[in-house]
Amino acid sequence: MTYLLALDQGTSSSRSIVFNAQGHVVSMAQREFAQIYPQPGWVEHDPHEIWATQLATAREALAKAGLQGRDIAALGITNQRETTLLWNRRTGEPVHNAIVWQDRRAEPTCAALRDAGLEPLVRERTGLVIDAYFSATKIQWMLDHVPGAREAAERGELAFGTVDTWLVWQLTGGRLHVTDVTNASRTMLFDIHRNEWDDELLAALRIPRSLLPQVHPSAHLYGETLPEWLGAAVNIGGIAGDQQSALFGQTCFRPGLAKNTYGTGCFLLMHTGSHAELSRNGLITTSAAQTTPTREYAQEGSVFIGGAVVQWLRDGLRAIKASSEVERLAESVPDSGGVMFVPAFTGLGAPYWKPQATGTIVGLTRGSGAAHIARAALESIAYQSAALLQAMSRDVQAAGGVPVTELRVDGGACVNNLLMQFQADLLGIPVVRPKVIETTALGAAYLAGLACGVYHSLDELAALWQVERRFLPTMPRGRAEELMHRWEKAVRQATLD
Ligand code: G3P
């Protein structure tokens, strides 16, 4: 039997999954780790804990499967993107905690960059908008605030990495300082057209080039792990940021194929082929996983608060005791009774990009109860995703591209049938849930499998993808449009526009 190991380092937990060559889950292990909130709007992770939990889950997943490192053809890494680490190349010691993608501390730097007129250059080279979400201004913050960091960086003593880079550094005992195109494309320092770090942006952001890792395609024989970690040296054959990895795991290899991942946030990505389309509707352009040096691109929209709204119902409002209760509570009423909930707890991401927006509930009446709010909260996940797909459709139409005809879904909240049906109703296209919903990890395993010869073509992978359930739209289009209209109105209230 052939096995592949995926290391899935996410925002709230580290997970490892062993897959067989058919793409089925053989075993899985997961560990949560601490979220550090030094002050409002700041989010950090301890780099040592990231590595320790990741290694522990890899060992546990192997043990559960009754396997050892030598039984693994290759491992693939997929990771929370943008989260930024800086460490000393000689000692391996981080100079600061990892600054997490959700962290907003670099917003003033971003405002200054916008004021300096850098937006067109950033958009054209990186496909991104200037936002504290991406790595570049987090690096800058560390260089400017950690005593001695800038001087050490200028002497070439420090290394920058996203989480994939940090894990490979650990796995190889500091021998490799690498990343893949998908992770590089989230730094705001990478020219996605040339697949190279961009000197002009580095200069504008005052970031020394010596900090940066080498960039490779996502499926690539990066090197081997030290034998001591998993009992044998294991090939590292794949790296991809988690959303691009999920796009790959959903076998969205052609223009017009799209997936939405329903996690803490929601991430909707559509493959656009070998052409980097720049959005006119608030989306970003990003590198899709590349299996050869040939460029591949996707359009992306990110919703910052997706499934996290259910956590707020549980921990903030205390309307439910466990997240799993939300579907039952929401189903206890036929609809939200006119309540609209815009969960802009950390501003609004694509397609609105309103960092100052705040959470807003509108349409309350004497008849509104916890069930209506729960339903509106759940529906807000679908509304935000529908707004993203509408923006994508407008871009596709303007460019004469291939429209999205179905949406493939994954992530924790895709098991919620009420949400998936409402999503299909709003979109007016089928929402398709595959049999294996661990598509983020699966994508990394597939990339590793391609690099080490377990798989030989993308067609072979596409043939492994299987549907579990297809949600067909049943709501009249007029009603869906009216609801979207009301949603946009509620968004305007949340942003005070
Ligand atoms: O861009 C952030 C994204 O990669 C985080 O994903 O699944 O760790 O919340 P997740």
From TrEMBL:
Pinpoint the Carbohydrate kinase FGGY C-terminal domain residues: 259-451
| Binding site residues for ATP | T11, S12, S13, T264, G307, Q311, G412
Against SUPFAM superfamilies, the record matches this protein to: Actin-like ATPase domain
Sequence positions that bind glycerol = R81, E82, Y133, D242, Q243
In what way is its activity controlled? Inhibited by fructose 1,6-bisphosphate (FBP).
- Protein keywords: ATP-binding, Glycerol metabolism, Kinase, Nucleotide-binding, Transferase
- Residue ranges annotated for the Carbohydrate kinase FGGY N-terminal domain, each copy included: 3-249
Q: Which residues bind ADP?
A: T11, R15, T264, G307, G412, N416
Signal sequence coordinates = none
Which family, according to the similarity comment? Belongs to the FGGY kinase family.
**CDD domains in the record:** FGGY_EcGK_like
The record's GO molecular-function terms, alphabetically, read: glycerol kinase activity
Q: What is catalysed by this protein?
A: glycerol + ATP = sn-glycerol 3-phosphate + ADP + H(+)
Organism of origin is: Caldimonas aquatica
Q: What's the protein here called?
A: Glycerol kinase
EC numbers: 2.7.1.30
> For binding sn-glycerol 3-phosphate, which residues are annotated in this chain's numbering?
T11, R81, E82, Y133, D242
Pathway(s) per entry: Polyol metabolism; glycerol degradation via glycerol kinase pathway; sn-glycerol 3-phosphate from glycerol: step 1/1
Q: Which InterPro entries match?
A: ATPase_NBD, Carb_kinase_FGGY, Carb_kinase_FGGY_CS, FGGY_C, FGGY_N, Glycerol_kin
Give the encoding gene's name.
Answer: glpK
Q: What does this protein do?
A: Key enzyme in the regulation of glycerol uptake and metabolism. Catalyzes the phosphorylation of glycerol to yield sn-glycerol 3-phosphate.
